[in-house]
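REQUEST ID: PR-0412
SUBMITTED BY: lab tech R.K.
PRIORITY: routine
TASK: structure prediction, single protein chain
INPUT:
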Amino acid sequence: MEKRTKFIYKKWQAIFLGIFLIITFFSTISNADIINVEEKLQLSYYFESPNIESIDIAGNSYDRVTLPDCLPAGEIGEPMIPSKGIYILLPPETEDLNIKIIQKEKQDLGPGFFIEPMGKPIPISAVKNNFLPEPDENIYSSDELYPGNSYTKIGVYNFRGYQILVLLLHPMQYIPLTGELFYYKNIEVEIDLINGKEINDLYRGFSRDRAEVIKKVDNPQISFEYKENSKATMDEYELLILTTDSFKDGFTPLKTIHDESGTPTIIKTLTDVGSSELEDIRNYIKDAYTNWGIDYVLIGGDEDIFPAPILWVYGLDEETWPYEDFMPSDIYYACLDGPYNFDGDGKWGEPTDGEGGGDVDLFADVYVGRACVSDLTEVNNFVTKTVTYLSRDPEDEYLSNACFVGEYLGDHGIASWGGNYLDQIIDGSSDDGYTTVGINATDYNIDKLYDRDYEGNYWPPSEIINRIENGVHFINHLGHSSYDYNMRLINYDVDLLSNSDLCFIYSQGCMAGGFDEGDCIAEHFTVKTTSGAFAGIWNARYGFFWSESTDGDSQRFQREFWDAIFGENLPELGKANHDSKEDNIPIIGRSMIRWCFYQTNLFGDPSINILEPGGNTAPESPNTPNGPTNGLPYISYTFETSTTDPDGDELLYKWDWGDGEISNWMGPYESDEIVEQKHKWSEKGNYEIKVKAKDELGAETDWSEPLIVKISFSRYHTRQYSNFRLFNILHVFFHQFF
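STATUS: complete
OUTPUT:
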């Protein structure tokens, strides 16, 4: 008996040793593959014929050249040559090793062109006209190609764990000395990849994350190489309200209405964080993002109560170049990947402050807004206004009213009038080489309050007051501002407003959103009373435009914001605000783009959907799930459902599997599309499967009628299940130790 025992022991010892050697062998091969095996990505881009027109700037003749969906990215005084920003999704666990650009179908446009130089960004508060664009003589007297290189690598950024490579292609080349100009109709991009990079800690595997990244990149099919995780716990939330202990109860009515309307919300305080340090707050948001599945964060507190990251940025003021400034920016709480002060100095947000000395993270993992409240009265004011807007009848007539407020900016040619910029937001525009969808004049009552068109070229403060009091949904503004002055109103004027039809304001004015400098006028609009605005976007420091051009840096963010709302179907304020930033990442190094990227803070609840005139009809309740009604534990079964959205909106689905697990919102799917989802149970019992749907605007259905599924064992299946469990135990054992 003892000999047999020893024999069995030695036999098992030999088996384990053999398995160990096999695993070690294949692990060695695998490691070699990680070092040596390369993959390749290939993408193609086509460029239409450029548009070239002769222009006159202060008596100087230039040629202005534009390419569809391309944008100028140079420095001040350099030729304004259009380039194309591209967003390439890298496969999981890879990094780019080499980038190759293949240019095809060269098109010569001839010599003799004198290309317009890049202009100087002008603070919107500037009154002097000494900002005419001037050619850089060192470049314009050169016989070398400009920009010369075929592409510029902007960086690799992470969005919810998906790696996005951002490049700037240069399809057009220019020889300044001779004026020769040519471009390539086709450009192929080849990227050699190397394996071995770990999946980012921020990767959650949610289908809704995949649905979002698909909208951001040029090669969405790669997203399906990232493994999806459809499971979620019962502690899933979409909105985190982060405030102080004394304000917590004041935000409860806002949590209640969000919970009732299908946006699960949780309120936490700095006590829960355990600190008021910036990094600790950001890490807490990361944990909530990872463990609760949040998409939105509402910060409940002014800068002196709930700290705001103060980022450093390099730029230009009215008189001096270079110029630098510090500004409050909540993007630090939104973009969660890597550090924002890599070198440990006092300048957070430098372009070398990201991981390994690279750029800081610029893609938002969560969408952030701030209620700049200083006491319970202001909390109640903010919550009352937000709840009021969320409760509005979509049929209210005032929701169709949109006001455009433009001022005289100085003697700057076409840029002299704010109205010339704002006109690009009405019905959209393809001016300045890029296309954005705007506010449709067919759906909205467009009201222009422009100095350009007003008698005497100056409208008085009473004009904007009357419009707010009479009810206006959107206000778009471009004009002079300061910390306590905006749209020709001062703080006192705003506090006297009594409108019950609340508005949203987007202003390019300077410093009106500088909430670190006392109570700025944006705070008076949003938290000081129960009137005024329910939300808005204002600049923390200078807003910027360009002399002799409507291609202003601040203008790009305002145009892209409304394009997100109406063109990209991103009606949530937080998403739209950050989308306007991400659309400008390819030119983040241009003049004041980074400045504007940092400073355009959202004052308001980031999860709010802009209400559409005439309302939005909720989808019909989904059909009872269809699938097997009997099954075994640990075996995956497929179930399907569908529903119809009366407005034809895309739909998201959430599954309740009856065992305590509820899926994330899955999708998007087309209306009437049959949707499949798999699930397996670990215990015997009867389970009720239910499903609900919501459209892209947030209108949600009730749960469907349930399908009852019986999970049970038979004697045979019990033995089979025991063997299955033994196999799993051995599998885990070998995985852990070998």
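NOTES: Residues 1-36 form one domain.
REVIEWED BY: pending
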